[in-house]
Amino acid sequence: MSETINTVELGEKIVRVLKTVYDPEIPVDIYELGLIYDVFVNDHYEVKILMTLTTPNCPVAETLPVEVEEKVKTIEEVKDAEVEITFDPPWSQELMSEEAKLELGLL
C-alpha cells in the first residue's frame, strides 16, 4: 500500500523554506517578491519549482536557484528538488505580495 502525499502540509513546509531565501539586493524573501511561479510535487516526493528572477541579468542568476534547491532538499519528505528558471511572464512589481510592497515602501 503506498502512502498518500499530504500535499497541503508539504506545500506549507516548502513555502516556509522558500521564505528563508532572500534576494540579496532587496530585503524581501523570494516568495513574497513573487519570484516563485509554481511548485510541483510528484508521487515520489520530487519537487520542481518554477521561478523567475527580477531581471535576466540578475547577479545571483547562478547561485539563487542552487540555494533554493538545496534548502528545499533539507525538508525530510523531499527526495529531490529541481528549479527551473523562466522569464515568461517577466517579473514585475505587480507580482509582489502586499507584505513585500509594504516592506519596500511601495504602498
From TrEMBL:
<dbReference type="InterPro" id="IPR052339">
    <property type="entry name" value="Fe-S_Maturation_MIP18"/>
</dbReference>
<feature type="domain" description="MIP18 family-like">
    <location>
        <begin position="12"/>
        <end position="85"/>
    </location>
</feature>
<dbReference type="InterPro" id="IPR034904">
    <property type="entry name" value="FSCA_dom_sf"/>
</dbReference>
<dbReference type="Pfam" id="PF01883">
    <property type="entry name" value="FeS_assembly_P"/>
</dbReference>
<protein>
    <recommendedName>
        <fullName>MIP18 family-like domain-containing protein</fullName>
    </recommendedName>
</protein>
<dbReference type="InterPro" id="IPR002744">
    <property type="entry name" value="MIP18-like"/>
</dbReference>
<dbReference type="InterPro" id="IPR014291">
    <property type="entry name" value="SUF_FeS_clus_asmbl-assoc"/>
</dbReference>
